[in-house]
Amino acid sequence: MATEAPSQPVLGQALKRKEDPRFIQGQGRYLDDIRLPAMVYMAIVRSPYAHARIRSIEKKAALEIPGVLAVITGEDLAGLGLHWMPTLAGDKQMVLATEKVLFQYQEVAAVVAESREAAYDGAAAVEVEYDALPVLVDAKKALDPEAPLLREDREKKSNHIWHWESGDAKATADAMAKAEVVVKQDVYFPRCHASPLETCGCIAEMNKATGRLTLYVTSQAPHVYRTVLALVAKLPEHMIRVVSPDIGGGFGAKVGVYPGYVVAVVASIVTGRPVKWVETRTEHLASTAFARDYHMSVELGATKEGRVQALRVHTLADHGAFDSQANPTKWPAGLFNICTGSYDFANAFVDVDAVYTNKPPGGVSYRCSFRVTEASYLVERAMDVLAAELKADPAELRRKNFIPADSFPYTTPLGWTYDSGNYQANLDKALEKIGYAELRREQAERRKRGELMGIGISTFTEIVGAGPSAQFDILGLKMFDSAEIRVHPTGKALARFGVRHQGQGHETTFAQIVASELGLTAADVLVEEGDTDTAPYGLGTYGSRSTPVAGGAAALCARRIREKAKKIAAHLLECGEHDVEWAEGKFRVSGAPERSVTMQDCAFAAYTNLPPGLEPGLEATYYYDPPNFTFPFGTYIAVVDIDPGTGEVKVRRFLAVDDCGTIINPMIVDGQIHGGLTEGFAIAFMQEIPYDAEGNCLASNFTEYLVPTAVETPRWETDRTTTPSPHHPIGAKGVGESPNVGSPAAFVNAVVDALSHFGVRHVDMPLTRDKIWRILRQHGVDGA
Amino acid sequence: MSYRIEVTVNGLRHALDVEPRLPLVYFLRETLGLTGTHIGCDTTSCGACTVLLDGKPVKSCTVFAVQADGCAVETVEGLASNGELHPLQKGFWEKHGLQCGYCTPGMLMTTKALLARNPSPSDDEIRTAISGNICRCTGYLNIVKAVQEAAAEIAGANAPVE
Amino acid sequence: MISAAFEYAVPKTLAEAIALLRRDPGGKILAGGQSLIPMMRFRLAAPSLLIDITRIPELHVMREEDGALRIGAAVSHAEIENAALIAQRYPLLASTAAVVADPVVRNRGTLCGSLVHADPAGDWGAALIAARAEVVIAGPAGERRMPLEEFLIDTFTTALGEDEVLAAVRVPTPGPRSGGSYLKIERKVGDFATAAVGVQLTLDAQGRVERAGIGLCAAGPVSLRAAAAEQRLIGKPLDDAAIASAGQEAAAAADPAADTRGPVDFKKDMFRVLTVRALRAARAAIAG
Fold first, then answer.
1. C146 at interface of B, judged by CB pairs closer than 8 A
2. What is the pLDDT at residue A325?
3. Chain B with chain C: Cβ pairs closer than 8 A
């Protein structure tokens, strides 16, 4: 039964997505779509105060509401040792507060009821009395002697969490002191939030008869959840099954284990029923993992020609009330020391101090690649500040400092070895495509007429694919990832992975990888992720790691299958294994290519006609420990016009030229870029979660936390260069976060560029109209 | 206190007792089991819950089921007919107009109503029409292309036969 | 996320609706519900009874009569936005309808509901003040009318009695040489206005301003009529100097609150800029 191998290479094809049919027919299976027999509902009671002692919690009125089955408090959890739980960052956090609360909307109690209505009615009826305490919301005041002490539970009685450094402080200080030109800039990356369209939620089902706990949950890392639950709830791990169903967007907000999940598990044990908890948008914005909130200070020391000799960065990191960010151990500031970016800086030193404040915990989220967004924003702003100081063209200043294309692999002064890159060619392509020289001429003419036009460039290099086991782990779990592929007798395959997509298209792209390695079509390969009972162990999808790590596993696993299939092919072709070659998606006899068999032929034979001594079946597993990260890069250029009357910034054009190495599906890559650019745009212009002096969250729903619509969102232009990763099995690098990493700086650089003739060097995000307006009026610019 | 309503959903008539405070979105999702319509926020901002009520897109989280008494509701589950995908569904699939899929049902229903009143919308008109529907994944570019693709297919199908 | 329980009634006539209101002091009128229902969801409002007036035929009527356009309480923003009559003869209303909330919400929300809600950041208040609209209130004693400016008393507070229903609004039909425009600054579609201005102008045969209405949205505790700004225009040619001067007066009259949309000085200046731009747009429309 010889069948044809696909006629076109599967890798690189813009195949329509295999996951789409269910979504376009409303047949996706998201968490809240799941209903189990006898299921009950949970609602959480939350603190209105940012810092307060809990005087009392009165359950009585709530318990009297018809349908309410239980009211769970921290005291109830304390009996099980579950009122606190370890975080992914080596700290601990409260599950339900017992003695005091540390941020507004913190979880205080949970009501379980027969109906959603009764659960909400019950939550409204729980009476909690608080004694307010002084509030700390300004990270810059956290280390003042008179600042309130937030974490009385810790041995170290301070709001200081940790200090972290990277690089050579002395060499950098010396180089900075000798530099002909030094620029310094404070740069704040505001607190924002990934806010996927689907909020977090779970259904916990403790089945007393079987002893199994099944947790359906919006999780980007189901295996990690299973292991954490086993350790925290002291349940045997093989009796726990975590299922991540279809997820309506993650962006890093669905990586941490939230208190609501733990409470739901307890509630299921207590009531003997499956317990569903789905948070509201307000709960999501006000209590789940925030993103960024880095107060950064950067110095660049350079020659007067603009060749940078030293980079020095100090950061104050606002972590909220608990250090619960999903960072690899030993990397509490994530991969922030990627902040030398695309440049060959001789010296660099970075240090970060993290502090507690009365705000929700988090920090690593919103497509940040583990703090790479902060790092990239910082260095790209700094380069523009230097360019302004030197009156140099920002594109040329960057080019002058780029790591040369023939220098890879290149090790930065902060310790990263970049795999490959050609920044010059990428920049050239972008400048040409946007018509840079013509735009500068236009800008000069407009400036003479008093019109405000700006061009902003960001040439970023980022780091993804966590990560090599020598350096990385999360809670001790090494950051490999896995693939398990089984080929059926009729030549179709089932492929399972340890990552978990939330819209990135793995059901298509991973099928393309496997299909290309095995001479199948993508339609022949069914991809599954998310059920810990069946999927091989993996660390999940975040930090753009899926393609670099699980994609690597996919290719290598498929090659293991091909190795075995080759033995079967030799048997079918009646020749020695050494005479069999794999070419054009088939096994053929070297020198006699017309004698060939397909993978489908071998698959059938694996069950029906094996060479003697060979084990039946055709399947393999591969756990891939990547030798290095991968380093996607790109050039983003924004062109803006500012309305002098209102301060409104209009993005006239935005071009993204990305290099993510080998491309599996260009349509999916473009989609990732459009989405990430839109998030970067929102961050640059309209997103922030501010807190007032009492710790009230001022952007807890979509009327204040602004997500752009199709009307505000620019019409993105995308292009590419392709510089494969030499160490990745298919040369791919990952791309999901690059657009959010690289774009905020392009927007801010463009706006600052438009105002540069007034001497403006920096404006902090979000670039709201009033900020721009004030600058304009200060410089006598009007335009009614 | 319950209230009897008669609602036609995707062509099927239902007569049921509901509590007045039951939002239409929960009536569809839980009473009728049509989980294609999603919930994304609590301030009538995101449009994930958009369905057609007597042909007009509405945010079903901000309509009580009782208000739909005597009305016709269309949801994403009713878009395909006789096993054939609606041109909009095909357009979204063809042009990669979805990633996580969560906003997609709302987008489909809003754009269905758009094409009914404006069969050949411009890029701007599409963007305005979907400005009550949030997407976090796609950046809207491919959604616009998907709608234009569907419009072209519908126009082609409606072209007078030579 | 789920509102408190309530009862639901669907009167067939205005008289029935009024009778229901009299019987149940905890009752509230429900038309589009696009302001009320979100408040109920957060339990900031918990009426014991919702009286749905959308099945009362007379409240759906939108038609010109006695020199004014009468818009009934059940007429949605979308119906106004899509009406040919509005596009042709009421440009101020057309430009306002297009920016209320978002297009999906506009299918349910009603103009009259928005006026009764009396959020000073609601667009219709400012636009209809500029248009010199009057409200038609139905109560147990019959119908009464009053200028919209008097009806809007304070934030979320109107002159509507507990047993009264806002039955319609009447917008004077602009005569010849008239133009109107509504301009809104919003951070994104669907946001409340950072600042917004509606203008309605009529010129006399010599090109001097005969009538001027300027309404400011999100300019204080209540939708505001910029009377001094209007005075700057009356009797004068509609030239740039007059327009600039009206803009200054509008800024002076505005009393916005600082919030996440901006500080006070910024917002006041936006009233100046928007007033100037709206007046220029109206001028261009009259000339064109």
1. no
2. 87
3. 79
pLDDT of residue A232: 85
Which of B136, B138, B143 faces A707 most closely, judged by CB atoms?
B136
Q: Are A394 and A384 in contact (CB under 8 A)?
A: yes
Peptide bond into B91 cis (omega under 30): no
Asked if the Cβ–Cβ distance from C190 to B45 is below 8 Å, we say: yes
Q: Determine the pLDDT at residue A201.
A: 98
User: C-alpha dihedral over C164, C167, C169, C173, to 10 degrees?
Assistant: -140
| A429 and A462 assigned to the same domain | yes
Minimum CA–CA partner of A278 in chain C: C1
The reply to whether B106 and B143 lie within a common domain is: yes
Determine whether the interchain pair A770/C277 forms a contact, defined as Cβ–Cβ distance below 8 Å: no
Domain holding A299, by residue range, is 294-403+425-466+628-778
Question: Does a structural domain hold residue A158?
Answer: no
Residue B101 and residue A671: Cβ atoms within 8 Å? no
pLDDT at residue number A46: 98
Calculate helix-pair angle for B87-94, B141-158, nearest 10 degrees.
140
Six-digit token pair at B118? 């404006």
Containing A383, the helix (H) or strand (E) segment is helix A372-390
pLDDT of residue A2: 46
Q: Give the tens place of pLDDT for each residue, B52-98.
A: 999 999 999 999 999 999 999 999 999 999 989 999 999 999 999 99
CATH code at position B14: 3.10.20.30
> Which tokens go with C128?
């209809």
CA closest to B48 among chain C residues: C104
Q: Is A365 helix (H, G, I), strand (E, B) or coil?
A: coil
For the question of whether the overall pTM of this predicted structure is more than 0.90, the answer is yes
**pLDDT(B161) > 80:** no
Contacts of A118 in chain C (CB under 8 A): none
Domain C62-172, CATH among 3.30.360.20, 3.40.50.980, 3.30.465.10, 1.10.1040.10: 3.30.465.10
Is the pLDDT assigned to residue C281 strictly greater than 70? yes
pLDDT score for A5? 59
Give the model confidence (pLDDT) of C170-195 as tens digits. 999 999 999 999 999 999 999 999 99
| Separation of alpha carbons A737 and A462, rounded Å | 9
Contact B20 C78 (CB under 8 A): no
Looking at residue A170, what is its pLDDT? 98
**Count of CA atoms in the C-beta half-sphere (13 A) of A353:** 12
If we measure between CA atoms, which residue out of A680, A231, A703, A438 comes closest to residue C189?
Answer: A703
Both A571 and A693 in one domain: the answer is no
DSSP A546: I
Pairwise CB contact (< 8 Å): B64 & C5 = no
- A762 to each of A319, A382, A747, A775, how far by Cα in Å? 25, 9, 12, 11
Give the C-alpha separation, A629 to A728, whole Å: 9
Give the pairing type, strands C27-30 and B50-53. Answer: unpaired
Look up the ipTM and state it. Answer: 0.98
What pLDDT sits at residue A7?
63
Q: Which of residues 72-111 of B touch C (CB under 8 A)?
A: 110
pLDDT beneath 70, residues of chain A? 1-7
CA distance linking residue C264 with residue A140, whole number of Å = 27
For the record, the structure tokens of A502 come out as 């939330």
b/e map A124-147, b = 16+ CB within 10 Å = bbbebebeebebbbebeebeeeeb
Residue C222 Cα, gap to closest chain B Cα (Å):
23
Phi-psi category of residue B76: left, alpha or beta, with phi > 0 → left and psi -120 to 50 → alpha: alpha
Q: Kind and range of the H or E element at B108?
A: helix B104-117
- Which A positions 693-712 lie with beta carbon below 8 A of chain B? 701-703, 707, 709-711
What is the model's pLDDT at position A439?
A: 98
The residues of A annotated as belonging to the active site are 220, 367-368, 737
Residues B141 and B108 reside in one and the same domain:
yes
